[in-house]
Amino acid sequence: MPEGHTVHRLARAFDALFAGERLAVTSPQRRFAAGAALLDGARLVAAEAWGKQLFLGFAPDGGADGAARAGAERWLRVHLGLYGAWTFAGDGTAAVVHAIGAPRRRIGERETVPAGPTPAAADGAAQWAPPAPRGAVRVRLRGAHAVADLTGPTACEVVTPEQKAAVEARLGPDPIRPDGGRASLEAARDDFVARVRRSRVVVGQQLMDQAVVAGVGNIYRAEALYRARLDPMRPGRDVDAETLRGIWDDLVVLMRDGADHGAIVTTRPEHRDAAGAAAAGAPADAAGAPRRRTRQNTDGTPGAVPAEDAFYVYHRDGLPCRVCGTPVLVKELAGRNLFWCAACQV
Q1: What end-to-end distance do the CA atoms of the chain give, in Å?
Q2: In order of start, what are the domains of the chain with their CATH numbers?
Q3: Residue of 147, 78, 77 whose CA lies nearest to 106
Q4: Which residues are catalytic?
Q5: Phi and psi angles of residue 300, each rounded to the nearest 5 degrees, phi first
Q6: pLDDT tens digit string along 272-320?
Q7: Which of 11, 49, 94, 194 lies at 20 to 30 Å from 209 by C-alpha?
Q8: DSSP H helices in the chain
Q9: What does the buried/exposed string (b/e) look like for 92-129 if buried means 16 or more CB atoms within 10 Å of the residue's CB?
Q10: In this predicted model, what pLDDT tens digit does every residue of 76-97 receive, in sequence order?
């Protein structure tokens, strides 16, 4: 399931490709035909992310600069879940803020880069024919120079501004949003601390609760707890406020960096390479089974932190801790694998 930084990158992609355009909205698989009809021909005036929720705002009229955000009358709410993904294709003329495979890219757990851009038609975009939908496309958004296809989402619905606000009210603060989704970033941090400390539920489970903090997934959960040297099985109400404030501040930095660069990197420079890169790159686990490799969008990018050096504990079970050498542990917690170091996180 994509973590929050990926959804924020999606919002930026929609803003870059379609802001201010009237879009043709269809449902090739027909499961979203009624919702598509409500949005077809409307102008995209806003693209927002809150945690793992993507909201695309539409209005019958709106400025080409997207300034009519407050005038959005309907919102397309999308939650990708475990299997959802967006596929983008363009005519080669669309400008994209982040060069991560544009104008064709897939944004889910991984954004993939094609061999090259789609050539523009010789006599302009009017002659451009977008590729046929591939797979069970729930909704297709088509603009002048690009299309976006959604497949396999957990949620895809048209909501009113009031319904959007109700969804947001159920979510915890988001470390990537400029104000955290509260009156200020400081207020968002205080809210996070209060939400964790009011419950006996262990902190390792609470960090995956979108009502406690929005956008944190399995990777950021494991890595933030390790960086805080915090036992994931400690009840939330027993974690001191200073430690929780530090976790929030750390998530703000880490998740915003992920949104900017398309890769999660949590290790400090002194803990990479000689401090564990060789072990991290081991081809098999202790039982001899192939070790799952976490792919990053920056794989192969010169100067980028290699994926095998990017994490302290995530998917490193059985390997030595980068700091103390103790084997990293894994156990199931609330249906997801939790990774931690029992020596460092006490």
Answers
A1: 29
A2: 4-168 (3.20.190.10), 175-340 (1.10.8.50)
A3: 147
A4: 2-3, 52, 336
A5: 85, -5
A6: 974 444 444 444 555 555 555 676 766 667 778 898 899 999 999 999 9
A7: 11
A8: 4-18, 33-39, 161-169, 185-197, 203-206, 218-227, 241-261, 277-280
A9: bbbebebebbbbbbbbbbbbebeeebbebeeeebeebe
A10: 999 999 999 999 988 888 654 4
